[in-house]
Write the structure tokens for this entry.
Amino acid sequence: MDLSVTVDADSILCRVSGDVDISCSPALREQLLAVLEPPRPRLVLDLSEVTFMDASGLGALMAARRRSLLLGGGLRLVAPSSSVRRVLEASGLRSRFPVTVDTSPACPDTMELAPALRSVRL
């Protein structure tokens, strides 16, 4: 797994790539929680290059989501790969994450679903 972080005026963009599994999920969780501090509680996760994600990866995403919401921000996923979409849907957690197709720093309360996800039954 690789993680790159870009800090913007009011949000943080994290690009994750590779496999996100039990061997690296604790590090991902730690790094995501570390970047979430006021005044930038909005986290944008680009998951387009994630090749595999298991339940431990979902745990890292949920921890980051909780922290972000506690700080008055939010978390959204950008273009999650098919493997990420599969695990989100199978776990029933898809509805917990706004999904968009671009990485613009704006993180509105309501996000339009990416075209590939519009037909997915929640």
Q: What stands out?
A: Confidence is low (pLDDT under 50) at residues 107-122. Strands lie at 2-7, 11-20, 42-53, 74-78, 99-100.
